[in-house]
């Protein structure tokens, strides 16, 4: 049986419309430097560590992964990206189990981002309201943080993004590109404000500290541990798990890129830019405030004293305050915007491989995989209910990020196998190195309570454990059911599909 008869159809139907800028911005939204500069890193650091040094180390250790993704994207540029690599280089069951688990984990994460979008909005409103003496903004911030408003705000924003993608696939890409460009510009503005205030930072930051009631005591320096390279390396997993490895967005839309080199640019450029933004952003805070002051605020007031709030606090210009605040909100928005595109392409690829219903591969007249988007919306709205029912239960799903580490470990193994078979020794070396690195990160994700999988006593969170196991079991079960169905109904062994590269 020829390859073209194995799949749902001879061509995916997706249009090659992604240019270099779209490709780069998609993965920049994926890595989300602006959110790393918000509250996903600094509140969790240990005494003695310096974030910007850890950021440089993390960037260096991620370069072999970027090489793997650039290499395999050039060799196998298909919709679904690394799901296709996994299912072809290992086995269909591996690709489906890992790929579907990753999508379930990602959907839960996007739902949490949508729900806690109100947190970013609330931070901006409360900061500006406190700085400028506007009680109504502080009050509105509190209102938006209530469960009902958080749900409604998240649901409306996500539905709008889905609508853009359904109406025209190209609009979805432009939504990501525009939002990330705005985010980058506002980040640079925030950096500039911090930089110009370095000479008299401690005087300039005083109004902000007083407004937020986080002024350190006179003897604060004595409570800060001295710098330690060991403690700095201890910060590394925060960056290595939450930020750097998430470069699979652009490879997932490789079949829609106008040129395969745009996909490669969409891997390495976002990684380098993310490293630069995180390193410079945190570096400016350390340079301005000094080591002791900065770590004191991060450790004791890390959810209030952030890159974004400090930048807002250093200027009395209301317009600049709002520009910076909007930049933070747009960074959060861009995560949802890229996520809608990437989720749909993975599900599309699984449908094209006959593991999910064929309906997920159907396109509307605008070239959009409309049914995958509807599935995404339904699944996300379902997950959005969880924080309303139980905040602690929902936030436990952050710990499911361990699925990503296991997934990237598997991709690294698949890359090493491909390199061995085809005698691409740099790929072999990179795959082996990254496999070891992701074993370490998986261990960190499972044992370090910061990541939410483990409780402070070391035991796994039962909700997180159940979710992680359930995600992998669901992926494998779908594969087995699809294999049985196609064998009995059509006489087709789906494993044969994975000996072919899907047509585009």
TrEMBL record:
Keyword flag ATP-binding: no
Record keywords, A-Z: Cell membrane, Membrane, Transmembrane, Transmembrane helix
InterPro entries attached to this UniProt entry: AA/rel_permease1, APC_superfamily
Highest taxon in the source lineage: Archaea
Pfam families per the UniProt record, alphabetical: AA_permease_2
Transmembrane regions listed in the UniProt entry: 24-45, 51-72, 148-167, 179-199, 219-244, 265-288, 319-348, 369-389, 424-443, 463-482
Membrane topology field: Multi-pass membrane protein
Compartments reported by the entry: Cell membrane
GO cellular component: plasma membrane
Gene3D superfamilies recorded: Amino acid/polyamine transporter I
Single Gene Ontology MF annotation: transmembrane transporter activity
Record protein name field: Amino acid permease
């Amino acid at each position: 049986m020829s390859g073209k008869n194995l799949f749902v159809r001879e061509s995916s139907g997706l249009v090659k419309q992604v240019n270099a800028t779209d490709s780069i911005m998609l993965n920049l939204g994926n890595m989300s430097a602006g959110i790393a500069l918000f509250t996903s890193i600094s509140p969790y650091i240990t005494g003695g560590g310096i974030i910007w040094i850890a950021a440089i180390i993390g960037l260096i250790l991620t370069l072999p992964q970027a090489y793997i993704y650039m290499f395999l994207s050039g060799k196998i540029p298909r919709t679904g990206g690394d799901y296709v690599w996994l299912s072809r280089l290992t086995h269909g069951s591996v690709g489906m189990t890992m790929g579907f688990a990753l999508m379930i984990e990602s959907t839960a994460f996007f739902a949490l981002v949508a729900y806690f979008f109100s947190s970013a909005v609330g931070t901006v409103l409360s900061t500006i309201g406190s700085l400028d003496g506007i009680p109504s903004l502080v009050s509105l911030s509190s209102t938006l943080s209530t469960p009902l408003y958080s749900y409604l705000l998240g649901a409306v924003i996500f539905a709008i993004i889905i609508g853009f993608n359904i109406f025209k696939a190209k609009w979805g890409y432009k939504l990501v590109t525009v939002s990330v460009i705005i985010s980058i510009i506002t980040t640079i503005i925030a950096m500039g404000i911090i930089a110009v205030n370095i000479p008299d930072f401690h005087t300039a930051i005083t109004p902000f500290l007083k407004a937020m009631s986080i002024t350190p005591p006179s003897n604060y320096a004595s409570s800060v541990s001295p710098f330690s390279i060991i403690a700095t390396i201890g910060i590394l997993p925060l960056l290595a798990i939450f930020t750097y490895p998430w470069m699979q967005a652009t490879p997932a839309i490789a079949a829609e890129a106008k040129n395969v080199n745009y996909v490669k640019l969409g891997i390495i450029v976002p990684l380098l830019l993310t490293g630069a933004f995180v390193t410079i952003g945190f570096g400016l805070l350390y340079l301005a405030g000094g080591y002791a002051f900065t770590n004191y605020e991060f450790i004791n007031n890390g959810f209030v004293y952030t890159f974004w709030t400090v930048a807002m606090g250093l200027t009395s210009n209301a317009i600049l305050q709002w520009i910076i605040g909007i930049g933070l909100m747009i960074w959060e928005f861009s995560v949802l915007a890229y996520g809608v595109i990437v989720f749909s392409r993975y599900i599309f690829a699984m449908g094209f491989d006959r593991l999910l219903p064929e309906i997920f591969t159907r396109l509307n007249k605008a070239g959009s995989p409309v049914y995958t988007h509807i599935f995404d919306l339904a699944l996300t709205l379902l997950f959005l209910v969880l924080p309303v029912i139980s905040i602690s239960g929902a936030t436990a799903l952050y710990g499911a990020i361990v699925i990503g580490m296991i997934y990237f470990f598997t991709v690294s193994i698949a890359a090493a196998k491909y390199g061995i078979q085809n005698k691409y020794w740099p790929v072999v070396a990179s795959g082996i190195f990254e496999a070891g690195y992701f074993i370490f990160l998986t261990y960190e994700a499972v044992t370090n309570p910061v990541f939410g999988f483990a409780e402070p006593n070391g035991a796994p969170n039962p909700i997180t454990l159940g979710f992680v196991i359930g995600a992998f079991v669901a992926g494998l079960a779908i594969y087995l059911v699809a294999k049985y169905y196609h064998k009995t109904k059509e006489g087709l062994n789906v494993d044969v599909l994975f000996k072919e590269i899907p047509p585009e």
